[in-house]
User: Fold these one by one.
Assistant:
Number 1:
Amino acid sequence: MLKKLLLLQLLLMTIFSFVQAQVSSSSISQSQLSQVKVDNLSDDQIRQIVAEMKKNNIGYDQIDQYAAQKGISTTEVDKLKARIKSLNLDTELTSGSNSGKNKLSDTTGRGNNDANQLDSAYYWQDQYKKIKAKQDYDKEMRRQRIFGTELFSNKNLTFEPNLRMATPLNYKLAANDEVVINIYGYSEIEHTLRVTPDGYIFIPNLGPVYVNGLTMEEAKTRITKQLSTIYAGIKTGNTQVQVSLGNIRSIRVVLIGEVMQPGSYTLPSLATVANALYVSGGPNENGSFREISVIRNGQSVATFDLYDFLIHGDLSNNVVLQDQDIVKVNPYKLRVELTGEVKRPAIFEGKSTETLKDIIDFAGGYTDLAYKGMVKAFRVNNRNREVLNVPEDQIGSFHLQTGDKFVVDSVIARYANRVTLSGAVYHPGEYALEQDMTIADLLKKADGVLDEALLSRGVVRRLKDDYTPALLNFNVQEVLAGKQNLKLQREDSVIIFSKLAVREEYLVKIDGEVNQPGYYPYSDSMHLEDLILLAGGLKDAASLKNVEVSRRIRTDGAFDSTDIRMAITAQFDINKDLAVDPSSAFPLHPFDEVIIRRSPSYTEQADVMLDGEVVYPGSYTINTKKERLSDLIKRAGGLRPEAYAEGSVLLRRTYTNNADSALIRSKLEIFYDKLYDSTSVEKVRNAVGRNLQLLGIQLEEVMAHPGSKYDLYLEDGDILRVPKRLQTVQIFGEVYFPKKVRFDKNYTFRDYIRGAGGFSSQSLRRRSYVVYSNGEVRSTRKVLFFNRYPRVKPGAEVYVPAKKVKEGLGPAAIVGIASAMASLALVIVTIINASK
């Protein structure tokens, strides 16, 4: 008994050690991660690592911390992240900063408080970024709705000063300006001089002249006076002096207040306030567009209002800046929002003296669909909000309050005097409802009804007092005759139906031996011959006898249970020229179907192709229905001396209809499943897919015994190929060196296999087969315990299939088997203990 227990224990240990080895071979333990090389990991092992991270709720951005705790180097971490991305597994991992429940394992044994604090920090940092981003987005969207903001985002409008224009007379010279002096007359000379930091220009042969702070007119007067001391012609008028401005200086301007990018800017000395605002990005969401101050030497010298330019195109208050000027954008004091049916809905800045009418003018006025009778206003008071209705006569006197929101509604899409006419009338459409207007009056305005109009009934769609729909009917013929006078109401819709629209389209069908078979519109008094002509006439193979017409059964509502007919059929003979013959004319009814059959004595030529080693190869027409292969060879002059009759091949067309094709496909799939060699499967599939299929023949027997069972009848499209004598054999499949070898009549099947290196370890010898050059196939047979291989002929192809690949047991199957064996062992132990 002790021996049995020891043996059983040894068996159990062997089973569980085997299972453990199998399971551990397909996964990576935690202790092995520190020495693992990412390049050596398979894709499945990468997926297991990602699955473990998902289980522990670890995000993709926490791989660095996760890998550090597992002891993986930084280089391997980068490779791991690249592998995860290449497998598109990074999307499966949640962002670590979004997960407040991530718990990084702590190998020091101190718990995971630090990890929780780190996760919390990531979480709140991410939340702050989202809130901040949303606030910035909302702020930018609100700024974009402010009227005039687009002025500073337009790349085609920069307000750059025109440096090529004539120098303004009020322009004051300062250091670094370039002064150009032209002297002409008795003396001609030009000087280009720059103003020094002390405010002087140095004129050759004259000396310094102080020009700082002088306008161009004042500078010209002073320079001319100084030059007259050395040029006598100036006093007499024979010499003239012209003073102009060359390259201008740069100035420093400071922008402060509610601007997008406040700071100090270097601008040309001809720059204006608008130019300075543009380079700074313009007013921000709190900046005023109407109160922009220019401060010079501590004093406000100008106030710029952008609305003058935006509304009227007026830049007269766009002053030229000077060095050290300060442009201050003040916060807005009054802003209102105007939406709805106006041409430019936006947020507008107003002044205390302006009214709602001014704001509507800023918006370009009302649109064509605007309701002008009243404007809705939403206002924020000290304690609550309120809604105000501003009538049209009070818009010009309604005072604004910052934060007001005005909505201009649209006119309701409802007509006060509209009626609609549609259907079989000459002029359908919408008409104005007049006093005591009737349906007859409406039809008269539309020039009456069409010829195909249904006169027995028309309808009027009407809305009742509670706006529920109602349908009224009337007799169109009586309305036109003046016997009915139904008065119309607002929004009535009158419909006159067409007889063609309320019935199924009348068609007739013709099929068979006509040039253009198909469906054709039915017409009254249409005859059989008329339909044949519409179909392009008869084909050459058409039979003039037994033309069949099938007709639907119409019982006019009467039901007879004993009537088992499905159609009425009749057969007729027609004339070849389809001449009019009143005695034999057959009128057609709607939905009749005509079939022109093929003449039973009509036969088209059938051709076959003869190719290869015959005296006269080419195309031949079959003379009789009983012409055979031997007759064809005889007509072609017989075989050539080098012809190999035993390898001849006959290709014949395949004809399968749709009903047979499904059955054939199902049988072929069963046949494919029985083929082990993939190469053979593809060859069979390709052969079946063609319209021509190989038909095995024995031409040597045909020539030896004409008219025998081997001598097949010819069919249209047959192709007979007679090759030269073949001298090779091709070997495919599970051999060590598949190749083409020379045919030797003394070689057996195994000799050819040995010539290709012999059978491989995966070969299925008992399934080997030979395909001969004429299309015949011979397979290996089993005789007692030995394989009898087929004989090999010239041009043959030898195929050695492969064994089926047996799939090994996976980890789950191994664990299941081990569990079953353990359970069996437990039962054995129980039985042994019970037998004591």
Note: Residues 606-675+685-722 form a domain with the Outer membrane lipoprotein wza fold like fold (CATH 3.10.560.10).
Number 2:
Amino acid sequence: MKYVGQNVERVDGIKKVTGDLKYVDDMKLPRMLYAGVKRSPHAHAKILKIDTTLAEQHPGVKAVVTGKDFPKKAGLYLTDKTFFAVDKTRFTGEAVAAVAAETEEIAKEAAELIEVEYEVLPSLHDAKEAIKEDAPLIHPELGDYRVVPIFKPVPGTNISEHFKLRKGNVEDAFKKAHRIFEKEFYVPHIQHTPIENHVAIAQYDREKNLTVWASCQSPYAVRAALSDAFEVPFHKLRVISPAVGGGFGAKAGTTLEGIIIPLAMKLGNRPIKLTYNREDEFVSSYVRQALHSKFKTAVDKNGKILAVENEFIWDGGAFTEYGVNIAKSAGFAAVGPYDVENIHCDSYAVYTNNPVGGPYRGFGMAEIHFGIEQNMDHIAREMEMDPIELRRINAQKPGGTTATGAKVDAACGLEESLEAVVKEIDYHTPSEQPADPNKVRAKGIACGMKAPSMPNNAGSSAVVRINEDGSAFLSVSAQDLGQGSDTALSQIAAEGLQIPVEKITIKTGDTDHTPYEWQTVASRITYSTGNAIIKACEDVKRQLANLASRKLEVPEEELILDDEHVVWEKDASKKVPVRDLALGLQFEDGSGIHGPIIGRGSFVPEGVVNFDPETGLSEKPVVFWTYGAYGVEIEVDKQTGNIQVLKATTCFDVGKAINPELVKAQCEGAVVQGLGSAIFEEIIMKDGKFQNSNFADYKIPTSGDMPEMTIHIAENPQYDGPYGARGMAEPAMIPAAPSIVNAFYNATGIAMNKLPLTPERVVNALKEHNK
């Protein structure tokens, strides 16, 4: 192929490195006002009274709104949230009221003048306590909420989703087991910390058109949620996302948009802007849900896993309108990349009075694999087996089955990826130890898998327009969050049209002018949008071939696109430039067939079957699985507790690498992000209040933490993927943390069931075990 599989330069590269790319926060519209937000200081409290008098009288203030003004609930999967607290607050930092003023300074001053009288209520901050039958209810009205039917809230409890997986006969399998192992793990909340904070502008004009400019991952999903919440029809609501400076799931749903829209609707025709500062970003946008997990594993004498009984309790926070989907996704991937005949899994999304939990890179997979992959190493040690051999025995293989009973596709590259990593890291050769006796080195390994968690109607679409000079416009609504999708999708279009990538301009992110896209989530864009683009290019080709066949007087079906021409397969000298057909065909007698040439394509995955609500089984619950493995070498300083990742190697089966360098860049970013979750990152709260909502106290990896990285790519083509490709952006992070923790055990002999491995935690563990 000419363009697919090639390392072309990023199409947005120059704009980004020069600063020419304009983000929402760069925008300043005429007569723009700024929002200030009054937030709750309590994790759980009744609102007895809100007095906005002083704020309304403050010079420069133009409008004030509270939850009573717009009380309708919103949510993508479960309509359980309001954008302002109504009657009571459910987490510290929840918006209670907002003002619009002439400057940001005035808006903040006025928001502080709003007086709120509360009655503090008992609050819940541990999901294991909140799930108990006698726990106070955070959402007593749960049974009245609208919900997408595939989710199962439990009214009268704090359980907003209960996904059950029942495969085989677990009870019999445990009776036959040679050994049974039980382990528990905990993964804390962490923050997405995108470079670009959340920001949005809303304007409501005199014709009742609502326009929202937002740094968001999924303009159409945001439009749907806002349309429902504020009762604005789709044709009157436009969402524009000009550029996104990082998302990782934090910008997948709606957050601050719902705060400024009421102000815009109250004022009319004046744009309102709200930009989160870093503390707002921590407290008031999504966090990754915390997870309590339990595993009970039955194994035969050869190391074959006979059965797994596990439980996942997700701390969904105050609202789980997005979090319910994470609990479901974890449930149907209950045992990770291993073929287990008997499974009993319960996965719960649970309300607490903690910050709102939402999607984060990996969508629950990194969290459950932290336990799954440590459990594999633990079983291997207890059985006196090689942990690599244990994984080989149990790995999902072509023709095997997934947790839901679906057949494993022939393109499963798990074993291939594992072997590549074992070889690269030289896993079975012990690490060379440093001269310093207080330091010790060791290697660790982990596997992982992920599928796109999306409904069977999750569609993508694309429009391709040929210009008069033979260049092309590609229009999609997939958002480039930094992952390079603009480049990869342009390469797919270039291959389909046989036009150089530099002659294609891609336009994204405007619900009035770019075609429908379900969401930019789930590592689905290369697969779903890529397939839509191929169909749009095929539509263009049909139109061009129809015109060229008349001009060249050859059969339409014998024409192909090649090097910016429509060419006769049987005689390449008979061809016509694409540019000559862009506006149609003109004949000498004055008659003609007119263009312009505009191709359209849409794609919805075929054959996806919803889960059985009682068993969680499905013959095809997802479109594909992406498999891979990690290997790391770490150094532990036993005096300071500091862990340094020296080397990291990864291999993932991506089907077909549309742009190999971008795939490697994704894996490198995933190594770093996974390293952060393993060693540094943890939201610390006291009674629901953040204790580290800034980069002075919340640590993320820096350049000094970068390991030596080696990235491998396996390519077993996806049968229905665009040129064989499948998504890999999220899967690339999943095995990172468990590989590091497994290496830590190999270095110290200490198992750690809680993340992160901070210096304090490491030193305490070493002291406790007299190491």
Note: The CA atoms of residues 455 and 608 lie 8 Å apart.
Number 3:
Amino acid sequence: MTQLQLLTGGSQNDPSFHQPLLTALLEAINTVPPGGHIFLCVAFIRQSGLALLDAALTEAQERGVALQVLTSDYLDVTEPVALRRLMLFAERGAMVKIYQSQNNAGFHLKSFLCLREDDLASFQATAFVGSSNLSRAALTQSLEWNWCLKVTPQSSPEARRSIVELQQQIACLAADPRMVELTHSWIDAYGQRYRKSAGPLLRQISGDTLADEPFPPQPNMIQIQALDALQQSRAQGFKRGLVVMATGLGKTWLSAFDARAMKASSLLFVAHREEILRQAEATFQRLEPDAHTGLYTGEIQQEANWLFASVQTLARAEHLTRFKATDFDYIVVDEFHHAASPTYRRILDYFRPRFLLGITATPERTDQADILALCDDNLVFETGLREGIVAGYLVPLLYQGIYDENINYDEIPWRNGRFDPEALDHAFASRKRAEHALQKWRQHAGQRTLAFCISIKHAEFMAEFFSKAGVKAVAVYAGSAMARNAALQQLDEGDLQVIFSVDLFNEGTDLPAIDTVLMLRPTESRIVFLQQLGRGLRLHPGKTHLVAIDLVGNHKACLSKPYLLQSLLSGGNGSGKGEMGKLPEGCFVNLEPELVPLLEKLKAGIRVRVEDDYRTLKEQLGYRPSAAQIFHYGVDFSKLRKQHGSWFALVHGQRDLNEQEAMVFTQHREFLLGAIETAGKTKCFKFILLQAFLNLDGLRNPPALSALAKESRLVLERHPDLLALDLADKQKAFAADSADWLKYWKQNPIRHSTEGSSGNLDNYWFEVENNCFKAKIVPPEHAETLHGMMQELIDLRLAEYRRSKGLEQRIAKLESSGRLKEVAVPASFAPLDFQEAANEVPYFPNLKIACGHFKTGRADEVEMQQVEGYSGQLDPERHFLARASGNSMNGGKQAIEDGDLLLLEWITPEHAGSITDQTLAIERQDETGDSQYLLRVIRKSPDGSYLLHAHNPDYPDLAATESMRTFARLKAVLR
């Protein structure tokens, strides 16, 4: 069957108007299957027109369609910026050639051919020949005439012959010697000519006013703050840094602005997905149109000085070794929360740029622990959802937590931190659940909805169900009948109401028109949950807010999402700790009544054992936490080792070590514990030495002492805070490759790690042999796995060291001022940083002193607080504040209510006094090693024993035991 159609663009009020070329051309491009061909042969190309086809051409290349573009420099009308954009397609396999019209004939072609199948038995094609070049005006507005010819296997021989002839003419033209391959060098030369020619004037004549931007993009206020922080960080000596910005605030643009600020002549941008790389390259190219960008596909691109590479390709040894460690001034690692994987680590350990920037939207320090270690624990700048909404760069969020009443998640298997996909797929294909979702969608949704589904089957089921209910809906996924760009365009134009998607829109996709997200899948990962929300938070004309409709089930992996969101929007860090503040104007977190008791039950859960913390964090993250993540989550490692022996013993007990890791742990557990996990940390040098040892692949190839000393100095310089803390001024002046530095490093961590001192076993795990530093017993087959396990522990120890040194510095400051004496505080209390201020004493926000039964509390955070309503003299060395919890003491003359602020005095040898009939705070350790606290009146029995008495008669007296210790006396109740 043959279809011949005349497309006559122009004003829709013109009686001759039929259809602009753009609509038909996009339909033809989107229907070319894998193995097909697309040919664009036009006299000139403007960026405005290429942008209209960009998404469709990109998706065509992704599904295996061959792309060929033939254009010209005729009259210098083709824009250099459009040619730079075409280089992105050329890097991914497209043939892009340009006809050099100087001293040659004019070039007036305007032809497009979409060849779906060129086998004569099943020939299918769509061709356009007419008057339209590739510009916005020509594709959408101008009065244009174009013939559209559609050919199928049933078409006449003449029609098929016409397509064959057009294809042959394109092939002849491509082989013409006047046609040259497009390169960055050619664009450079052409750009100089273009700026002096009539090209800009012709642009105005053509009506293509949206082609060139009159001014380059400028950073917004949040980006300006981040750029200032980055500049200060580099001034302090840091060579790596992490920036955390909520989705939608312009992380990629920030990296481009910073690269420009650094005047980076060579740049590497690393990401894990092709879509992120393509968008990033387009962003950098837009900011610096003259930059030579390029995609790394396995061959060094001599022209490209700004290189964009996938981590999967670059991390392979045969690719890494094609570069020198110092080849790049500036390295950007996008979606940096993925960077803790071994593939990323190989890249980060190999290169030595002037600066490395990690960018991510991960919201909380626990999530960031691993990646912070990769950035030398240097969190340069952080801004979240709340700040973005308040500043007006993101729209307000209206969250509707819907009880997922038709699914009992307790019946769905939970394996390795996630629900079983097959069980979910079966449970979700339910008409009752679909009807429930449809009802809630109709109640809350806006105009344009993106819905997240668990699988293709689920997406198809939901799209069919909504469609039968009269909703314009479609399922979109890799290989779906409708192309992604077509679905988004129809959604934007109102021809669709809902897109049901599967793993297409989580990362790297800008969808500003979306005003509703419908969450139909249980997202175990908080990072993925926030990425999905971020798809709709971007500004768009006419959009006032984003509605999030979330089906929340009866499982803590689901229930944590509303609490996380409440925390982030109210100014918390997403950890669930600290006080909740007011939400930004226009933001709401609404929960159906059935969810409230489930959330309260979740919040009321008491951490008892280390493995409980471990499992909780694993469920929050969606993967096995690292040692550093558990540390930042608040787990006490002395308690962990008391219960389990070591970090990897805990992980092994949770069956989270793979077969190789379990074998290495069994054979080298003492080495991991003694050489790293419990090694002394008077200074950071031992861990810097081990990091350098790993950087040099020391388990496989023991490094020479000179190489190890040099690498150690380079690692230490990446930690300017530690270098300033632990290195004397004399040694700071030593160069990394100097004899003085080598001598110093030999006398310090190398000697202490090999010869031993004080008979400590951990000093004997390494030895010097033939002037090389080596681990004593490490079979080659264990080297790779042991390397990764050692790295995890080194990251932990450096994090511990930073925290401990911060506390020790505060104590030293107090001791030097003469204001800190020996104070017998509980061992679990952090050292205090007292400040000179009248009636100001330490306040422990996490220390809950029970007025009921013993209650677990933490004293790992402290702040100074003004005391009001107390006339007595206060001493910050003797007095402190904590909250009461419970009602056992709410009787008598000095009644204590739940939540009252208690003023207490440490019990020390100097201030002990009598304890009988006094209201005292008592400490004990439970069976897990956690500290517990209780407030009671001490009564002495006739037999000489002591009882803990409550003012409230509902609470019986408790017998004092040897496991209990009085540590503070109640001075006053402050309300």
Note: The longest strand covers residues 840-850.
Number 4:
Amino acid sequence: MLAVAFQTLRGRWVSFLGTVVALVLGVAQVAAMGLLLTTTLDLPDRPVERFADAPAVVMPSDSAWNPAHHDLGVRSLPQAKGVSQDLLRKVSGTGGTVVDRAFYAQLEGGSKDQVGHPWPVARFGGYTLRDGRAPASDREIVVASGQARTGDTVTVLTAAGVGSYTVSGTVTPVDWEDAVFFTDAEAARLAPRIEALVALGAIDKVREAVGEDAEVLTGQDRHKADASEDRDREALDNTITLVPVMASVAGTTAVFVVASTFAFAVIQRRREVALLRTVGATPRQVRRIIRNEALLVSGFASVVGTVLGLFGAQLLADMLIGMGVSPPWFRIEPSLHWTVLAPLAAAFLVGVLVALCGVTVAARRASNIRPVEALREAAVDDSGMTPGRLLLGAIGLVCGAGLTAWIALGDPAMVLSPSAYALSLLVPVLAAAVLAPLAVGPFTRLLMWPLRRFSGPIAMLVRESVLTSRRRTASTAAPILLTVGLTFSLLAATDALGAARENGLQNQVRSEYALAPDGTSGISPQVVEKVSRIDGVQVAAPILTTIYTHDEDRLEVNDGLVVDSAALKRMMDLKVVDGSLDALDDNSTVLADLWGMKVGSTLKVLMADGEEANLRIAATYRALRGEDVAYLPQRFAKTAVYARDGLAPRAYISLESGTDRTAATTAIRQAVAGTGARLITRDQLVASESAYARHLTEVRQRSITVIVVMFCFIAILNTLLMATADRRRDLAVLRMAGATPKQVMRFFIAESLLVTAIGVALALIATALNLTGLWSALHQLFGTAPITVPYAVITGITVMSTLLAVTGTVLPVSAALRARTVQLVGTRE
């Protein structure tokens, strides 16, 4: 049977070309996605930077801490505390140490990523004086050449405020850090937390002195102390978060299209199957021939697809780099490593299995009918749905409706999770594609109803052709349905979520004005205090910190905002569930209701500097997951320099009644001039606050959309080419009945437009189901649910899908019309 299958392939290679193209592209997509995923699991070692010339580095550590599970800048409790004075004395006794501190220090007009260090640590990072000398007083600094010249007086922004310093010297710049160096004493004043120690004594003595209190880093492990370690992780976090979602959505789409294409190829061969059954082939023999054909085709196409995926993975990575998702150094190199071989082998197996699964059901149905019935089936395709397809479609429809109901009523916060929500959008669209044969009849009659009075036979012929070929119509409409349905659902959900977040934040902020960072990482408490001294001006500047709580035997890490209680009530409209913001004092806190704690109970917390506190729950408020911070009294502001950089991400400003607005705003602008802060309105604040979250969501959803649309566009063209090229007998009948070439072309174009309209109509129904759940979820989460539709993009994709469908029809029909009618009649299917 394998030889027969091979001979069939040789004789019908043109008919199998479409299935090969679909499978090659599908396998290439799966292979490329798999390579991206495995590459993130085994990255090459990065060179040591800040401590490249240090014999050993001592850093506090927590063996149970996984930084990948936390946001950038969040430290474990030992890391937040830093090196203790006791540990410093122990390590110093082994042969000497050099203290390193890392803190926010930015030259006015410089990069917001600049970092401050004590000068003695500079030599371990390869810094050498280019001119001038080391800082000798607390008002002197050393900067990289190009930032300033020796002898210049510059302004430096720190968490402790704004200060003037004299540049005593410059160093040769490095490409991994932009540092500002202070004296030991000044660095200790600006940043009391000790980041790390360079141990100069014998390594074994250092390890003995440190014990279990910290980690001694040598060799390549010293890279753990580099700031780029966290930056690389953050950059890869976006990739690791996005790629599985892309792989799931795009992979599912590819598998569905490939399986449908193979099943369609079997359906196209009904006449050949009828002939085999008539000459005595058993159902089992027919199934074996078809399976062997699928095995040969899928084996060849999967090999080509894996090779294409191997070399195309970097193109996908480059696309992510261009979108700002992956870091510029992210590379996928062909090799014999498991991170390359495993995804390629998996993609190959997926291609073969999908092809076999795609033909199995169709082959069983085609082989299990009697020869006479097979001949009748070959003439007219009027069956529409098989029981198995009907069951699968019903399950998909129930799951889609159930997911919509769950999102709308059970877990509306699911729409905030890109991974889970993007997958849920797939279900109604795929269910519509599976059930498409049932919809062909009603939609054909509905769409053709306005044309019933048109003179001429074309409208009638198109209508009857589609009605008697429901499976073919459903197969050719499926890629259009997937393209428009997934694009519409993903992009509309992205825009609606962004608009709802913005409206929700607009309603939450009461203040008329705000201070926002102006080219800096945040706003220092000194600047906030300066603004608060202006008559008639009230300021609230929540400072981001970290608190640690015990959950049984685990230490939980949570975000906290240190803010004055009166200012909190005045500036923010928190949706209080229980208790009152008036009860917030120096020994209490306000928590989100997601914490599950009752008002009046006590929360035991560890602060970043090691202080323990028992805080009474003064109130709880309603919050979304990810925004459930704890509001803390002002006395914990000092811990922020241990937990984070000690800066306020923003400051809310309101004016007292009767205050001259023009005079007050002018005074504020003058007060913040040169401090790295700027005055903006509430609307500008809301727009900037939502911009980053909107950007991340858009990048995730739109990158998925780009890949899906590219694949589906090719699938549309491929499927229409297959379907139309197989209909030479229909074309011959039209020509023999007297139709001119122009009329034949009009017939096929009209049919492709009808198929496109059916696909778009089903896509709109599936999208409506998705957006219904989204509307209800956003209404519960934000109190508003503006469903915004990107009409221009959706219209463009729909038009492009239509053009591809027409192109996939015109090309084979044009080629066939060049042949004589008698040749068309004699052409095999």
Note: The first helix runs from residue 2 to 11.
